[in-house]
Design goal:
By secondary structure, the protein is mainly alpha-helical. Helices cover 49% and strands 0% of the residues.
Length: 150
């Protein structure tokens, strides 16, 4: 006998099948206020509490901010373009999200490895672009929530 018979493949109530056709039980649930702040495994409230910094980071907004600001930074050197500095900024804001709860000094080696992966065609070695990494990292310490979206 086959493990899956035609009877087992059909749902008793077809309205319960989501449009995507995925019949697995959803890992999230809305709480009594309609919020999706539940642990995906246990369903306990507050499962997404550690996302504070990550929720504030909008890569598109960060790129736009740094594209207009990079020439004003003290580490900027003529002859380099935004595309040279961009991997450093990206490493900084992604690292800020990834290494939440740790200081820049604690994760600098990890950020250096991340920069080597993000570097692409940038002309700048880590030693010249580490200041951009730190600037993007520290931007979240010195600005308020409103400015992060600007």
């Amino acid at each position: 006998m086959a493990a899956f018979t035609p009877e087992r493949r059909t749902a008793a109530n077809r309205a319960l099948i989501p449009p995507s056709g995925d019949r697995r039980r959803a890992a999230w649930r809305y709480d009594h206020q309609g919020e999706m702040n539940r642990d995906p495994i246990t369903g306990a409230p507050g499962g997404l509490a550690g996302k504070g910094v990550a929720e504030k980071i909008d890569p598109t907004a960060e790129e736009a901010y740094w594209r207009t600001q990079y020439t004003r930074e003290p580490y900027y050197e003529r002859g380099y373009t935004f595309d040279d500095y961009y991997p450093g900024y990206r490493t900084g804001w992604e690292g800020r999200s990834r290494y939440t709860g740790r200081t820049y000094e604690q994760v600098e080696r990890d950020l250096q490895r991340d920069y080597q992966r993000n570097r692409g065609n940038s002309q700048l070695e880590w030693s010249k672009n580490r200041h951009a990494v730190r600037a993007a990292w520290e931007r979240f310490d010195r600005t308020d929530d409103f400015e992060h979206g600007q």
